[in-house]
Amino acid sequence: MCQNELKRACVDRKGARESGCPERSDGYARNMNNNQPSSLPVGVLRNPRLDATLQPIAAIDLGTNNCRLLVARIDGDRFEVVDGFSRIVRLGEGVERTGRLSEAAMHRTIQALRICARMMARHGVSQARCVATEACRRASNADTFVSRVRLATGLDLEVLDHHEEARLGLLGCVGLSDPSFDQFLMMDVGGGSTELVWFRPEPDRALELIVLSLPVGVVTMAERFGSDPDDAHYLAMQAAVWTALDTDPAARDLAAAVRAGGSLQGIGTSGTVTTLAALHMKLARYERNLVDGVWLPPTALDEVARELRARTPAERAGEPCIGPGRADLVIAGTAIVQALSARFPFAALRVADRGLREGILATLIGDGLEAALERQFGARGARPMA
Prior knowledge:
By secondary structure, the protein is an alpha/beta fold. Helix content is about 45%, strand content about 20%.
């Protein structure tokens, strides 16, 4: 979508509130000038064919639960985020049961996307990629919704397939992989699905990738088992993850690769993992520059999970690092993360408050996953195994 189209489609209304979720902000706008090394993806190359007059660029990630925007400008050989937006929209609410996006969910989401479009117009964005994930993959009326978004906002939504979503997510956070480990597993726990990418760099060999998507997410699990499950239902949540793994041939390849691969670093990129990290760190409020890139020891997940499950729903909603918008989903997310860590024991887990949007921005300036992995590990490319 070009800059002029954005300006025509979205007239900025005086005094319109264009901020993210009030209980936990996106964090980029506040932290973009703090010179923290974790603030930007590492090693993003500039595209020499990109006309400098086309800056800035933008990425929208429309998930089952959240609508999120990043606006960035190119700065030397990498990009610098200059603005961000995040709002809980619950687009996938009820899709597990009905197979359709509801009118209320579509209305909420379009309102958020209108704000994104206004922000993009205000920054003069002329290159953008706007993607939707699991809710739109599942919903029978997704095409209708995409058309309504285009008419209401001027934005063209692209519905990503599972593999592309996982690869872009890894591209956004591959800089957090530590070459001292033998193998790596990125997990992105979303609202409607969980994406996993395993890779093992080896000298003088093409890098192997296993990519898979599990049909379990925080929204779908909470709708199926409840937002405040007892012990039996919590175990049922974890069992649903293990069943999804046991019935996926790629997951069997993944399990065999992990068993044979040596020390395993986990990379957790999702609201669940960043929330668990903030709680483990006992932050008074969520601070992206403190959470992004932090290491969690293997025992931390179980400790935080026990403490979190002992709280009442009201206590969880009152926790600043969770907030009322996420309180009914955080237990489902915790169950998914614990189930994955039980099946694939990490030597350590590194937390990524970055992922799909940063991966999209990287592609907009000509970077790609194979190039990023080669820079990080010296591998000669990626050879997909699944």
